[in-house]
Amino acid sequence: MKLRILHFLITFLKTSCPLLLPALAVTFLFSPLPLTARNSAGPFDGIGVNMSNLHLLSEARTRSISPENFTGEKGGGAKADPADKDKPNTANAHQAARDLGKGWKVNPFVRIKSGQTFTLAEIDGPGAIQHIWMTPTGNWRFSIIRIYWDDETEPSVECPVGDFFAMGWGQYAPLSSLAVCVNPGSAFNCYWTMPFRKKCRITMENLDASEMRLYYQIDYALTKVPDDAAYFHAQFRRTNPNMTSDYTILDGVKGRGHYVGVYMAWGVNNNGWWGEGEIKFFMDGDKEHPTICGTGTEDYFCGSYNFENKAEKKYEVFTTAYAGLSQVIRPDGLYKSQQRFGLYRWHITDPVRFTKDLKITMQDLGWRSGRRYLPQKSDIASVAFWYQVEPHTPFPKLPSKDELEVN
């Protein structure tokens, strides 16, 4: 349409006002589009928020769920009453608030008993989770977070809460990235965008013998979800010891989607360098040979040459927006015989796209004498993160409590 109008103007100006032709043509070509044309794709939905679109208004409604407002309803916060102290998870801080009364931080946390599964949130859509914060107590490997989208009976997210937030060894370590931040003292934050259309349900299961105390907040937007938005998934695996050359990060994924990253808790049973293994992506029908093959473990995690500080001749911890060696636990000679590492790699600007299926493996490979590769038998746990269309194939059965345990 714009070109037809321009052609008409040029024809008219050639005969009527030839001296005005150059100036008017330049003005027409480089003037901003009308507002209706610029917004032809529809109004901003408020989901994909970043620094470049933070100024845009939307019809999204912000809501938040915490123990002070279990439903996230408008005007539903800070209603707990110290007088309700005998009702479970209704006034857990009634002792501290007894002199102040209703509205004074009466129920800021929940208690989850041993063997109990507690529903943290149940939200009617459409909408999207935009941030999760929590501070779980107890054994992080024995606290299992699950997320269900829409009406599914099999979770799309299932893993120990520590590993989900890149803290697989049960010890705090600061981590700053775009997707996950772990802040003093053991504050877990997740910024993965998680859209849903009908419903979102988030639960926490306590496998530990002790009661768990959990402070948490789930921030979300109620808004229209784009037709091409996929669902967030996270799957935990652990092999201890790994008895094959390739550790499987992810397998059995069917459908269309894109892989967006992994966290790995890697325990090494030898004292030398352990990270020579190549990552392999088998996608869309690949059998014997992968489409994508990396060059080494530290290379995949965006480091190089053993993650070594050359001046100090030791591992150097680093955390960045997209990748990091966020934790190094060295053997102390008394309780631990392993070198232990926490690593993450987020494919935020370079997601690995697949249309039919996906399998990801990482070789468990180090060095031995004579400059020869050493097939290792490491203790490896991982959480793979990806988006895909539903339905997804059921996950492998979660390891038992004994198999989850960090010794």
Write down the Rg.
26 Å
CATH architecture designation of the largest domain: Sandwich
**Distance from first to last alpha carbon:** 69 Å
Biggest pleated sheet = 11 strands, mixed
What level of helicity do the residues show?
10-25%
CATH class of the largest domain: Mainly Beta
In CATH terms, the superfamily of the largest domain is Protein of unknown function DUF2961
- Tally of helical segments: 6
What's the average pLDDT?
90
Low-pLDDT regions = 1-6, 18-40
Number of strands: 27
Domains, number = 2
CATH topology of the largest domain: Jelly Rolls
Form type: globular
Structural class: mainly beta
Proportion of beta-strand residues? 35-45%
Can you describe what's shown?
There is one protein chain. The strands form five sheets. Strands 3, 5, 6, 11, 13, 15, 20, 21, 22, 23 and 27 form an eleven-stranded mixed sheet that branches. Strands 1, 2, 4, 7, 8, 9, 10 and 12 form an eight-stranded antiparallel sheet that branches. The chain has a four-stranded antiparallel sheet with strand order 14-24-16-17, with no helix packed on it. The chain has two domains: 2-31; 121-404, Protein of unknown function DUF2961 (Jelly Rolls, Sandwich). It contains six helices and 27 strands. The chain has helices at 2-16, 21-30, 35-38, 161-164, 297-300, 401-404; strands at 61-65, 110-112, 117-124, 127-136, 143-149, 157-160, 175-176, 180-183, 187-190, 194-196, 199-206, 212-222, 231-239, 246-254, 257-268, 279-283, 292-293, 308-309, 314-315, 318-319, 323-329, 339-346, 352-354, 357-363, 365-368, 372-375, 379-388. It is mainly beta. Helices cover 10% and strands 38% of the residues.
